[in-house]
Design goal:
The complex is a heterodimer of chains A (479) and B (724). Chain A has 479 residues and is mainly β. Helices cover 13% and strands 34% of the residues of chain A. Chain A has 2 domains: 118 residues, no CATH class; 296 residues, 7 Propeller (Methylamine Dehydrogenase, Chain H), CATH 2.130.10. Chain B is an alpha+beta fold and 724 residues long. Chain B has 5 domains: 98 residues, no CATH class; 83 residues, Immunoglobulin-like (Sandwich); 182 residues, no CATH class; 78 residues, no CATH class; 71 residues. Classes of the chains: A mainly beta (479), B alpha+beta (724).
């Protein structure tokens, strides 16, 4: 008798404790997947149970896939955390049985959050009641005249002041983009993006990027919108659209488990493509705020994606040197472009959409004839570093970035600490070095390059976080 | 002076090679199962155990700018987030933020993650706080300290940066911080690895002292002294001395590869001289069969195979030339160092200059392959397997890629050109050939002997210098290898086992013994017979195979004789000797013994070749590789069936030979049974055995069928198939 009574009391006590913790997480609103549980899974689980790897067939990266369970069946049972497999494994007392393996246990408050979420009936988001609706991301309405280039070129005006994150030293310039219509360059920094005048390199405005480190910056054809994509390594990633004039955050796509390494906005502003260590390219509709296509073909990290200026094609490249062309509307496969033997570092389209240029860690630059799928021109060992005396073997000679200027010149930078400008037929027109000749053991090299909208100025960012620029044409002279 | 003071006042920036890479090693980041795998792990690769520091620096710092190493916000570097388990990491959490590993990495990144400028003092020696640990069964754990000495003469404590392992965890365990705990009685070694060095300490865990009595056996020579010394330390009592019957059979099988004849048995047993065992050993050593047996062992290791296919260098005629040369050297008692040196330095026709066939037979390939040859060469003549160092520094030994490629360069000029007839190849050294290239950076590596810093003088055939270095008395690797192989041949187990896997992490079970054997070989000017005589005369060699209570579990310390299944060729020769019915081998003259046989093939000589099917069944080396393990000693079911019903025994029973002779003599049953026992097993039957077998003979005292059955049974007994 007394035994049964004791048991009952214990059960009640446990229940009360759980309920108490769940409420402590957010007393006003019930726990939901997107706000509360997904960040925990992302932090502890999705490396092995995510989009790219599904150990035991289990994917914990989205509400739908969590509900589906793994090869062993369901991992959550609505309303019954104690009967849910996932709670069992994360709270196992034996470290050999506990998930995540070979790691500290998930903190108790986070386990309590997961339990509360299960016990509360598995809400997907704050608005869910019982059966949650389809995923709902932030949406964005493209300008009707997205590709019609008229009116004054958009420039940042009265951007709100932001508190810049304090860093020990400048963050490497991981991304750089030139406005196609204005004397304006966007340069990535740590958790923010600077707008810079290309010739003077003066900062004219800064917008915050609390998502982390921007790895990609792209202006829309109109110059009105800036796409910034990035995140925190092995934690989170997203692509964000900003209004250039006001600095306003317009929309956000992707809820990745690693920084987004490659992204682009289609010329009609209706699509955002993004990719990274997940090995897939995701194609979002900006109007619906929805993932429309997942392009599965690459077998390594996606390092670059680029829409053709005519909006028909999407080029994607990966870390083992494969490039694929896709139909930008349907997501269908068009062509593979095989030439590179090392990681692709950049893909860039010439304004006429006939030529795609690629460059990579194999030291190669290729100007692709897209119609034929064949290299029109290529330059091997385009950025050869000097060989120190008595130094044998391969020297890293990667070409780190490539970007077309308005009249078809290609500007590139590489591990030889140089920035080069190439003619349409692959002749070298200019060469600028940023070699520091330092003996401190720290090698600085240009990470990103761009050419100003009028083709007069080449600008480069380096691994020490500095910007460099060189005049290659007298301003005012058209063509 | 002023500069030095300023530098000293500033916080010291960790060096990538000296401080950061050891953290990768200690935490296991660059292990083969993690990022040290040839393809890396999860997109990030480090060189295995750090053989390529320059490449590792590039990959950590520059491959993905701002990601693995974030010099702007150092604590957000992925390197640190992953290692501390702050973000998900397949390898899990490796160390905490409070650890010194974290502090090292963080302060390096805070200093902008610099590469090393100029030469960083490299580790030249690693030592342990002790090289011997002795535990009573219940002993307190002992903490080892690891010290690394750098090329600039400085030393530092690297216990926290080394990795530890035990060779036998059922004897002693060692934890990640170098704490040794006794587990069970026995002896083993524990090791610490740091940089490219692995250093070990011997661990002895004693069995309970209670009840152990050291029998204090007399020592005949230094071998006994050293083995007994070791056994006494381990509280293991050796077995008794074996009886004369056992000794005679054992030593005859070991030295002339057949059992003693009945006449030899009776002569030895009736010999009353006190030194008759020594005299017997001397007589057997003087027998040509001793030389022939060692010629067979060398021919097997040197992979003598003859083929009939002309366009390769390994024609039957070349194999004959090589084999005959080897046998001549053994019969002439040629010093082993000269024997090896002549082969190493040999050139000329494969058909007329036997020893030049080292370069055609040791690796059977249509083209001479310097890398494959260098690996087999070192395994055979030094017992060292250097081939691991082709792709990375040897993880369990001292050999580096520099050693490997320098060694390969001794053979990069080896060429074979067609001779005057199709079967002939002329072996020569092309002095214009380029040396081997280092795999990491493509730098040419001139010929350099193992462990040396400078290459051998150039401008000539470097093999002369190689032969000199290899066979010099000072080269202990060579003399120890030979001594160990000779010991293993007679004792059934090497002091280092396997004999061809000598490495820092596979130390001798009795170091002074191996040293003494090696010194004996050197002092006797590399005379095989001298060392064999010494070993056979030792009490250790003559111990009984019967274990006692304290040595039953010992398999390594020579406390009792090992039961050894007869080698395939010795077994076949034994069947022929005992039955007196010869065995013919195709391609060889009548009277050829199995030990003198080597495969003759109708095609080429690549791949495994056993020759006669009997040899395949009983595991004679197929000569496919240079490994000692090619010779199989395991009993199998097909061996049992072959002896029971196969033609080797069946065709040799009563029709002719030794049994026929005895049937014709019409001996009395008891005498006949005794005669058969001596003939087959070299011993008299026990009274029980006689009584049991007597019942089989029945009324007809000359029942040939019954004696044939007894003879067959004895040949099929495990006692016949083993040397005991």
């Amino acid at each position: 008798m007394s035994l049964a009574g004791l048991k009952m009391r214990c059960v009640v006590a446990v229940f009360l404790i759980c309920a108490g913790l769940a409420q402590a997480a957010d007393p006003a609103k019930p726990v939901n997947f997107e706000q509360h549980v997904a960040p925990i899974f992302k932090r502890h689980c999705v490396q092995c149970h995510g989009e790219s790897k599904q150990k035991a067939g289990l994917d914990l990266s989205s509400f739908a896939s969590v509900s589906k369970g793994g090869t062993g069946g369901a991992v959550v049972v609505a309303g019954r955390s104690s009967a849910s497999r996932i709670v069992e494994v994360i709270s196992a007392s034996d470290p050999a049985e506990r998930m995540p393996p070979e790691n500290d246990a998930i903190p108790n408050d986070q386990i309590a959050t997961i339990r509360a979420w299960i016990d509360g009936g598995l809400r997907q988001n704050a608005g869910s009641t019982v059966a949650p609706p389809e995923a709902n991301a932030m949406t964005f309405t493209p300008a009707a005249n997205a590709t019609k280039l008229d009116g004054p070129p958009p420039m940042p005006e009265h951007l709100p002041a932001i508190g810049r994150a304090k860093t020990m030293r400048p963050f490497p310039v991981l991304a750089l983009a030139s406005s196609p219509r204005a004397p304006l360059v966007a340069a990535a920094s740590f958790e923010c993006i600077d707008f810079v005048d290309p010739a003077s390199r003066n900062i004219v405005g800064t917008i915050a990027f609390p998502q982390g480190e921007p790895h990609v910056l792209r202006f829309s054809r109109s110059g009105r919108i800036l796409l910034a994509a990035g995140g925190r390594p092995v934690q989170s990633g997203a692509a964000v659209l900003f209004d250039v004039t006001s600095g306003k955050h317009l929309a956000e796509f992707g809820d990745e488990t690693d920084a987004v390494l490659a992204a682009d906005l289609s010329p009609d502003e209706r699509k955002v493509a993004l990719g990274g260590s997940g090995r897939v390219v995701k194609l979002y509709s900006t109007e619906k705020g929805k993932l429309e296509h997942t392009l599965i073909k690459h077998t390594d990290w996606i390092t670059s994606v680029a829409f053709s200026p005519d909006g028909k094609l999407l080029a994607t490249g990966d870390r083992i040197g494969n490039i694929h062309l896709w139909d930008a509307q349907s997501g269908g496969v068009v062509l593979p472009l095989a030439e590179h033997k090392g990681a692709i570092r950049s893909l860039t389209w010439r304004s006429d959409s006939h030529v795609l240029a690629s460059c990579g860690e194999d030291g190669l630059i290729v100007w692709w004839d897209v119609a034929k799928g064949w290299p029109a021109t290529s330059r091997a060992d385009a950025h050869p570093p000097a060989r120190p005396e008595g130094y044998y073997g391969k020297i890293a000679n990667g070409v780190l970035d490539a970007s077309f200027g308005p009249t078809g010149e290609l500007v590139t930078c590489g591990r030889d600490q140089a920035v080069r400008v190439w003619s349409n037929d692959g002749r070298e027109l200019h060469r600028f070095s940023i070699a520091n000749g330092s003996t401190t053991g720290i090698k600085v090299f240009p990470t990103r390059v761009a050419m100003s909208f009028d083709g007069t100025t080449v600008i480069a960012g380096d691994s020490a976080g500095r910007l460099h620029s060189w005049q290659v044409k007298k301003p005012g002279k058209s063509k | 002076m002023g500069d030095a003071r300023i530098l000293a006042a500033e916080p010291v920036v960790p060096s990538f090679r000296r401080d950061v890479m050891p953290v990768f090693f200690r935490a296991g980041c660059n292990a083969g199962t993690c990022h040290g795998s040839a393809r890396g792990k999860d997109g990030f690769m480090l060189s295995l155990f750090g053989y390529d520091p320059r490449g590792d620096y590039e990959r950590v710092v520059n491959e993905m700018v701002g990601r693995r190493v974030n010099t702007a916000v150092p604590s957000q570097s992925l390197l640190l987030l992953k290692a501390t388990g702050a973000v998900s990491h397949t390898g899990g959490k490796l160390f905490g933020r409070e650890s010194e590993y974290y502090r090292t990495l963080l302060s390096w990144i805070e200093a902008s993650a610099p590469d090393d400028v100029g030469q960083v003092p490299s580790t030249v020696e690693v030592s342990l706080s002790t090289n011997r640990l002795l535990f009573e069964t219940q002993g307190k754990p002992v903490e080892l300290k690891v010290t690394a000495r750098a090329s600039d003469g400085t030393s530092r404590d690297v216990t926290k940066l080394a990795r530890f392992f035990s060779n036998n965890e059922s004897v002693a365990k060692i934890d990640a911080d170098g704490r040794v705990t006794a587990v069970g009685s026995g002896d083993t070694h524990v090791f610490a690895r740091f940089s490219r060095f692995t250093v070990g300490a011997e661990v002895i865990v004693l069995p309970p002292e209670k009840g152990f009595v050291w029998p204090n056996p007399p020592a005949i020579n230094y071998i006994d002294t050293l083995v007994f010394d070791r056994l006494q330390k381990l509280r293991i009592a050796p077995s008794k001395l074996c009886d004369d019957e056992t000794f005679l059979r054992r030593v005859t099988l070991d030295l002339v590869a057949r059992p003693p004849t009945v006449a030899e048995y009776r002569a030895f047993m009736s010999d009353t001289r006190s030194n008759k065992r020594t005299l017997k050993i001397d007589a057997l050593l003087a027998d040509d069969a001793f030389a022939d047996y060692w010629a067979a062992l060398w021919a097997e290791q040197l992979r003598v195979i003859g083929g009939n296919y002309a366009p390769v260098a390994t024609h039957v005629k070349a194999a004959d030339a090589f084999y005959q040369w080897i046998r001549r050297q053994m019969r002439l008692n040629r010093p082993l160092n000269e024997f090896v040196a002549e082969m190493v330095d040999a050139s000329g026709s494969n058909l007329t200059n036997g020893p030049a066939n080292l370069y055609t037979m040791l690796v059977h390939k249509p083209q001479f392959e310097p890398k494959a040859f260098a690996a087999d060469f070192s395994q055979l003549f030094l017992g060292v397997q250097i081939q691991c160092a082709e792709c990375h520094n040897h993880p369990f030994d001292r050999w580096t890629q520099d050693d490997y490629y320098g060694f390969v360069s001794f053979f990069t000029g080896m060429k074979r050109k067609p001779g005057v007839e199709p079967r002939e190849r002329r072996i020569y050294y092309d002095m214009s050939a380029a040396p081997a290239k280092h795999v990491v950076d493509g730098r040419p590596m001139p010929a350099k002997v193992l462990g040396a810093i400078d290459p051998v003088p150039g401008g000539g055939d470097p093999r002369t210098a190689l032969a000199q270095w290899l066979t010099a008395p000072e080269n202990a690797m060579f003399s120890r290898n030979l001594a160990n192989r000779i010991w293993a041949q007679l004792m059934g187990r090497g002091v280092i086992e396997p004999v061809d896997d000598v490495r820092a992490t596979n130390p001798p079970v009795n170091e002074p013994l191996l040293d003494a054997l090696s010194h004996h070989l050197v002092d006797s000017r590399f005379h095989l017979r001298s060392l064999v005589r010494e070993i056979c005369n030792s009490r250790v060699y003559q111990l009984s195979a019967k274990p006692n209570a304290s040595n039953r579990g010992d398999t390594r310390q020579f406390s009792h004789a090992h039961l050894r299944r007869l080698r395939a060729d010795v077994l076949l020769d034994s069947v022929v000797t005992v039955t007196g019915v010869p065995r013919r081998f195709s391609g060889f003259p009548d009277g050829t013994r199995a030990i003198e046989y080597y495969p003759r093939e109708s095609g080429d000589t690549e791949g495994p070749h056993f020759g006669e099917p009997f040899f395949a069944t009983f595991g004679r080396s197929s000569r496919a590789t240079v490994c000692a393990s090619e010779t199989k000693r395991e009993p199998t079911l097909s061996q049992t069936l072959h002896m029971a019903v196969g033609d080797t025994v069946r065709e040799r029973l009563g029709q002719s030979g030794e049994l026929k002779k005895r049937l014709d003599a019409k001996l009395k049953p008891d005498a006949m049974i005794e005669e058969l026992y001596i003939l087959v097993l070299a011993r008299k039957p026990s009274a029980d055995e006689v009584a049991y077998l007597r019942a089989l003979v029945g009324k007809d005292e000359n029942d040939a069928g019954a004696y044939e059955d007894i003879f067959w049974s004895l040949l099929n007994s495990t006692e016949f198939g083993f040397n005991h």
